[in-house]
Design brief:
about 250 residues, mainly beta, eleven-stranded mixed sheet, four-stranded antiparallel sheet
């Protein structure tokens, strides 16, 4: 039940008819990524983006922001190496989808409201370099989900530890992952409707470093990875209800 990034995310938004918050999120993702912003305030959020170059790729960063009524609120192009901090135009909306397209380069995203990054679609979570702890809300209806990882460049890999809410390790993936590797994670009944943690670090079983990793989450859930556990706890259930309505109509 892969959450189709463009059609599924926009459908989610159609069905929907808090200086920047400092969760530990200063990490770069490469290629096209989709961010969901949750807003309970009566003002529009302020977002920040940084365009980061990789090797000698010339691509600028294309940015688009869509509200919960599928209205495009903002479109910008940020020059390679540049940055932007701006309040989203228009009245406050409860939910926004931010589409960041840096081409072969990267983007660092931030916002003054809770947000999560989609680990689905063509690139999943396409991180480049170190990644902070991330959090996944696993809804009560989810009995299992899958994690897939890939690192196609030589000398690059990861160690992924997926932890249940009580700290127990549910999955450990460690290696270079030149080919994509997928594992099923069973969700015990007491751990449903709770927030799980994902920690990424350098692999221990291979002479490789954590870099250019692609990570996908799939299952009867919303594959949003939150940089804050509190955001996952508070906003995760709300986003899941919207996503569930979409999945149940398919």
């Amino acid at each position: 039940m892969m959450w189709r990034v463009i059609s599924g995310a926009v459908m989610l938004l159609v069905m929907a008819t808090v200086a920047l918050a400092q969760a530990p999120t200063d990490f770069m993702v490469r290629h096209t990524h989709y961010f969901v912003i949750c807003n309970d305030a009566d003002t529009a959020p302020t977002i920040s983006v940084q365009s980061r170059g990789v090797y000698t790729y010339p691509d600028a960063l294309k940015l688009r922001v869509i509200d919960d009524q599928s209205e495009v609120r903002m479109q910008r192009v940020v020059a390679l190496g540049g940055s932007l901090e701006q309040q989203i135009p228009g009245p406050a909306a409860p939910l926004y989808l931010v589409i960041a397209e840096p081409g072969m380069n990267g983007v660092i995203f931030g916002c003054d409201r809770p947000w999560g990054i989609m680990a689905s679609g063509s690139y999943g979570l396409g991180s480049s370099g170190k990644v902070p702890p991330l959090h996944l809300y696993v809804p009560p209806e989810c009995e299992s989900f899958t994690i897939k990882a890939q690192a196609t460049s030589p000398g690059e890999g990861l160690r992924l530890v997926v932890q249940q809410p009580d700290g127990a390790e549910a999955l450990v993936m460690d290696g270079e992952f030149d080919a994509a590797e997928e594992h099923k994670v069973e969700v015990p009944a007491p751990a449903r409707g709770e927030v799980w943690a994902l920690t990424l670090s350098d692999p221990q079983t291979a002479d490789a470093r954590l870099d250019d990793i692609q990570l996908w989450v799939d299952g009867y859930l919303a594959p949003l990875l939150w940089p804050s556990q509190e955001w996952a706890e508070v906003e995760g259930p709300k986003v899941w209800l919207r996503q569930k309505a979409v999945l149940d109509q398919q």
